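Next comes one such specimen:
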Amino acid sequence: MAEQKEVIKVGVGGYIALLFALLVFSGVFMNFDGPLRVLDLTTLTGQFGRIVEGAAPGIQGAGGTGVRNGFFQSLSIAPGVFLAVAFITVIEHYKGLEAARKLLTPLLRPLLGISGACGLALISNWQSSDTGAAVARSALDSGLITPKERDILLAEQFVGAAIIGMLFSNGALLFPYLTVAPGVILLLVMVMKFVAGNMMRLYIKLFEEKKTEKAEA
């Protein structure tokens, strides 16, 4: 399969699709005003209206409990996941994922030991944990990443998932009380995400690969 990937040609359209995907998933235009805001995944996903006056936007209403409330919480996540999967399918059609693999592998291979095809999943996780997971699953199902790369990627995603969205929305309430700039917090979380990914990388190297070697022997 690796040999087949090497002969895939990526045209200009593939790199344009990759650039478009990076802009949409990164959250760069999340707080923009005007037409450029349409390049943000959260904006495209939209939001539910209010069912009860005074309740937060959503289909859960107010005062729900138990399995019924949990069901609607899960249902409220579905539109964003559906949109992300559909979006990544279109990007894959135009060879955007293959362009990511070619461009980002030289960067991600030494940093995390993973293919550049993990790049979109890694970046989308900055804005949405559910979207990052969906993109990672799509890349795995397409054969663009291996189970080992998936494990390293998910360890990286688990730390500070949706950090940009959470930090500049809910986290903004704490900004007046911070003794450091929000950018310092963001940088620290990003560093720890890579530390977590490399911890999983080390674990696989020390234990999982030895198990495989013993099984083959």
